[in-house]
Amino acid sequence: MTRKTPSKLLLSLSLLACFSTCTCHSSANDDKGAGIKGLFIFGSSLVDNGNNNFLQDSLAKADYLPYGIDFPLGPTGRFTNGKNVIDLLGDHLKLPSLIPAFADPSTKGSKIVHGVNYASGASGILDDTGLIAGHVISLSQQIRNFEKVTLPDLEAQLECRSRVVLPKYLFVVGTGGNDYSFNYFLGKSDSNVSLQAFTANLTASLSQQLMLFNFGARRFVLMSVNPLGCSPTVMLNQQISRNGCVQGLNRAAHLFNTHLKSLVDVLKSEMPGSTSVYVNSYKIIRDIIRNPISKGFKDASRSCCEVASMNEGGNGILCKRGGQACAERSSHVFFDGLHPTEAVNAQIASKAYESNLKTEVYPTNIKNLVNSYVF
């Protein structure tokens, strides 16, 4: 065996160190000139693209018509008639393909290089949120799935350490609404806890879970909770206030969103080198509901699809399996009893990407986030 000289040994160690920190396989750099390589998505049904399809005991599924009636692939588990906000955001970012669902057994290898979607309908920030819907994937489990399963696979695919490649990805988080709808307001939490205390605990928990920074994540998009009190399901079952929405639920959503917006500044100080964008989908949808005609909509209160009530064996939220859907889907704000239509999702995605109003995106839009980031 040939004995290495000290200089050769040092050279070998230098090359090894460089590979682990500063070089990647060519596929990691195949998006020349692009500011983003892909998306990793965490959250609930608003951003779920089919993970719940693979959960045998889940009641929160959208893998049947009329869901996907306007989607090129038909029903895929997206809780809307066509594309959800993640699909549309991917269009703005010019990603080469749709983001695959983590729970799909085929989501591995080369299929993950442009990101993975971990979101699960009915899930929340708290582990016990959504149990009413059977098996769901909590936010903490979604993050574990990313860390334990996807990350090693991604590093192997790109032959690159996570801290080098993850800054090229956008981490989108859209969760929190179900922690109120399917937890706090259903009395699942301690009844002695005030809304303020519950919200503070919720955002503190979210902040801790967002420490994906430890794996190399640097760019985050935090989606607000939508106006919970304006959904068709809620308005059918509760007393409506003068402006057409249930204010108790909206106040809870607004309180959470205020904390979430503040989290953008907190994360920046706690995670040096990171940048975050808060997308105020609450305001975007609320503005549409208040003046639908000016925004291109005609119906801001009724669901577009036929929703099965609890008396009919449904849950009052999801579309009836094989049921009818309205003809003018692009003029409706809501597709089912809770989720917006593709037309609304398109407005949210567009404003998230390029709005210059800090009331809609804070402190800047996703386009600026992507283009201004220095690797």
Fold topology:
Elements: H1 6-21, E1 38-43, H2 85-92, E2 115-117, H3 139-158, H4 162-165, E3 169-174, H5 177-181, H6 195-209, E4 219-223, H7 232-237, H8 247-270, E5 275-279, H9 281-290, E6 299-303, E7 332-334, H10 342-354, E8 361-362, H11 366-372
Parallel strand pairs: 1-2, 1-3, 3-4, 4-5, 6-7
Antiparallel strand pairs: 5-8
**Could you name the ranges where pLDDT drops below 50 across 5 or more consecutive residues?**
1-22, 26-33
Number of helical segments with 4 or more residues: 11
What is the rounded Rg?
22 Å
Number of strands: 8
Shape, principal axes of CA atoms: globular
Terminal-residue CA separation: 42 Å
Helical percentage? 25-40%
Major sheet:
6 strands, mixed
**Lateral arrangement of strands in the main beta sheet:** 2-1-3-4-5-8
Share of residues in strands: 5-15%
What class, by secondary structure content?
alpha/beta
Average pLDDT reading: 89
Secondary-structure element order, N to C: HEHEHHEHHEHHEHEEHEH
